[in-house]
Amino acid sequence: MIPSTDLYFGAAVVYGVLFVAFVAWLRRLEGDGRRLCALATGLVGLSAVAYTMMSTGAGMIPVAGGVVDAPNLLDDTATYAGMYGLAAVLAGPSKRWIVAVSGIVAAQRLAFELPYAGIVGGTGALAAAGVVVVGWFVISGIFAGPIWRAARNQPAKRRLVHWKCRNLVLFLFATLIVYAMLALSGVLTEFLNTSLNLYIDLLMRVGVTSLLFVNAGSLGEDDGRGSTSSVVSPAPASATGE
Which superkingdom, per the lineage (predicted)? Predict the structure, then answer.
């Protein structure tokens, strides 16, 4: 089988190429869309750096009987919090809700690291898994509640982009949670574990970033159809875009 370090190096190359492509695309944008796309592009660049370090084995830190992969932990925490934060920003809610969803997903990633790095096991691992699963439902509730109410005051085009971005992030993170539970159970081989992780992470980073770039021209537009629009907006009931 292909060693994990080789897979990480391949991922670093892919992220590096995508980062350069997104930067070139970014130069053609302007306005609010450009600012949001720049933030997403920065997260892609961070992943390129993180996977380069992981391919060399750098940043492995012994902690309480376990080993923490610092580049992976920092990259995931920043990226997940950033992607959720961007999805929330599109709705224009108060800052406390943006901080809330970003903070919860960061806590989820840190909780997952405890059993994944071998720091806790047994009851501790179950508690960590509970934090990850419950956190997803809490975030879904925040998006369907206060954040969606704020989104209804946005222009219809921007609201639609938020709806798509929100559903994409929630769906991919739910998929990531399923993968995480399988990884903790030990049923996956090292190759399959690493490959699935890389694939889902790539979908989330590139999927959200591409969605923002494609719709960048609509993010600053006011088409006169905000909360008083007679057009029926997408319902918040679906957390996965159904």
Answer: Archaea
As given in the structure block, the two tokens for residue 111 are 């909780």
Longest dimension (CA), the chain: 60
* Alpha helix stretches (DSSP H) within 27-66: 32-56
Instruction: Count Cβ atoms below 10 Å from residue 226 Cβ, excluding itself.
Output: 16
For the segment(s) 4-218, the CATH number from 3.100.10.10, 1.20.1070.10, 3.30.230.10, 3.20.20.450 is: 1.20.1070.10
Do residues 127 and 135 touch, judged by C-beta distance below 8 A?
Answer: no
Under the banding of pLDDT at 50, 70 and 90, the label for residue 32 is: confident
Nearest to 90 by CA among 151, 35, 145: 151
So where are the chain's domains?
4-218
Q: Which long-range contacts (CB under 8 A, 24 or more apart) does 184-187 make?
A: 184/115, 184/116, 184/125, 184/129
Tokens 């944008």, residue located: 29
Residue 191 backbone phi and psi in degrees, to 5:
-65, -45
Measured CA to CA, the distance from residue 28 to residue 23 in angstroms comes to 9
Strand partners, 226: none
CA 206 from chain centre, in angstroms, equals 10
* Helix/strand number for the chain, H first, E second: 8, 2
